[in-house]
Write a structure and sequence with these properties.
Blueprint: H1 2-16, H2 21-38, E1 45-50, H3 51-59, E2 69-77, E3 80-88, H4 89-92, E4 109-121, E5 124-134, E6 137-138, H5 141-152, E7 162-166, E8 171-177, E9 180-185
Antiparallel strand pairs: 1-9, 2-3, 3-4, 4-5, 5-6, 5-7, 8-9
Helix pairs in contact: 2-3
Length: 186
């Protein structure tokens, strides 16, 4: 009986550690992009990720999120990324507190939804935040700017509400479509 129990326990652990087909598909695509970047071949490589693949990758450990961020999900539309996450602001702001009354919004655990325009061309990406809500309530831009400067930029200097940055892995362009993101490498 102990042998049967041990076998079932091992079988349960093995199944629990397997990833979804969407995760495995995203993992293969990221690996192909890495391989192309390391050894570019003529013509380039175009890779499209579905929202389902990216959401599985986010949820199943493909991305290590900073402490206090979980349940990250995206839902893409043409040129627009709608993202949501569960944010524990007390964990994010633990090393630095503020007496500014605007910061009262950024305490506790909240569902945060961000809508941003996103595009990429000539190796550069641009992400422009259009709106942010906490538990369905619109966050004023002044509060967002203050939170960004006080808490995010000390850890992530490139963080901004209108960010332009170089894309990795020889990605030349990126486009956001309905429930998918496509990257072209050169």
């Amino acid at each position: 009986m102990k042998i049967v129990f041990a076998f079932l326990l091992l079988l349960g652990v093995a199944f629990a550690q397997q990833h979804s087909p969407e995760y495995r598909s995203a993992e293969r695509k990221f690996a192909a992009m890495d391989a192309y970047a390391a050894n570019p071949r003529g013509g380039g490589l175009v890779t499209t990720f579905t929202d389902a693949e990216l959401n599985a990758y986010f949820a199943e450990g493909g991305v290590k999120w900073p402490q206090g961020i979980s349940n990250v999900r995206i839902d893409d539309e043409s040129s627009v990324v709608n993202g949501s996450a569960l944010i524990d602001f007390d964990k994010i702001t633990a090393s630095s507190r503020s007496s500014n009354p605007l910061m009262a919004l950024f305490t506790g655990v909240h569902t945060v939804h961000v809508t941003a325009k996103a595009s990429g061309a000539r190796g550069r990406a641009r992400v422009t935040v259009q709106s942010v809500t906490l538990d369905g309530m619109q966050v004023p831009n002044a509060a967002l700017e203050f939170f960004l400067v006080k808490f995010l930029q000390p850890k992530y200097p490139e963080a901004d509400l209108d960010a332009v940055f170089g894309m990795p892995n020889r990605v030349d362009s990126a486009s956001v479509g309905d429930h998918q993101v496509t990257f072209a490498q050169r």
